[in-house]
């Protein structure tokens, strides 16, 4: 096929508006590979965090979005009992873009509204016992002491994170040597350390992040409601464990 004929064919395939139509498809499973039907999937504009469309996965765990313009997108994927996962889709090509299989992790006993009645025989001890559980609403420019679960001034030496509204987004910023990490074994802190601001607008109520605090304790924070674009506050369910 000549270059001219290839160009003419590409133009002929364009929709009436002149821009190639984007289709994003994927499949959702749990950590064991079992299909998750009825998972909520939102497609967000990466820059604005605005939800463009939403759908639910079918009986085979599959989902599809069509009629999208060229651009960068985020997929926010969640299901009851599972933590929300954010997946980036960079510049999908015209036609169908198949994203890799999305695996969701089960929420455990630290998450809000999770029933974790444990029946055991013999002695039971938690290697990293909870020292604080609290729900807290935080506004932009406010900071949190995660050991006490209290709002403090951003310049306080006991502050672990602060909330910033900047560049059209809402960010959680670690301070005083605190850092984002991962949930390790038995809900301890993992080994990774990241001090970069975390953007949370657009995230849903099943989203979670983990902080290694100023006092070297492990705090898990769960969003208690979806954060809309342009928001200047966020609600957190905070669980801090000893290390």
Q: What is the helix tally? A: 1
Given helix and strand content, the structural type is mainly beta
Q: Largest sheet, if any?
A: 5 strands, antiparallel
The tally of domains stands at 2
The string of secondary-structure elements, in order, is HEEEEEEEEEEEEEEEEEE
Order of strands, widest sheet? 9-18-17-16-14
Residues in helices, as a percent range = under 10%
Give the overall shape, derived from the CA principal axes. Answer: globular
Uncertain runs are 3-17
Q: How much β-strand is present in the residues? A: 35-45%
DSSP strand count:
18
Radius of gyration, rounded?
Answer: 21 Å
Mean pLDDT: 88
Span between termini:
65 Å
Q: Strands, helices and their partners?
A:
Elements: H1 3-12, E1 22-30, E2 40-45, E3 51-56, E4 62-68, E5 73-78, E6 85-89, E7 95-98, E8 102-104, E9 130-139, E10 143-145, E11 150-152, E12 161-166, E13 169-174, E14 179-181, E15 198-199, E16 208-212, E17 218-223, E18 233-241
Parallel strand pairs: 1-7, 1-8
Antiparallel strand pairs: 1-4, 2-3, 2-5, 5-6, 9-18, 10-11, 10-12, 12-13, 13-15, 14-16, 16-17, 17-18
Summarize the structure.
This protein has 1 helix and 18 strands.
Characterization of this structure:
It is a single chain. By secondary structure, the chain is mostly beta strands. It folds into two domains: 3-104, Immunoglobulins (Immunoglobulin-like), CATH 2.60.40.10; 130-241, no CATH class. Helices cover 4% and strands 41% of the residues. The chain has one helix and 18 strands. The strands form four sheets. Strands 9-18-17-16-14 form a five-stranded antiparallel beta sheet, with no helix packed on it. Strand 16 and strand 17 form a beta hairpin. It is globular, with a radius of gyration of 21 Å. The protein starts with a helix and ends with a strand.
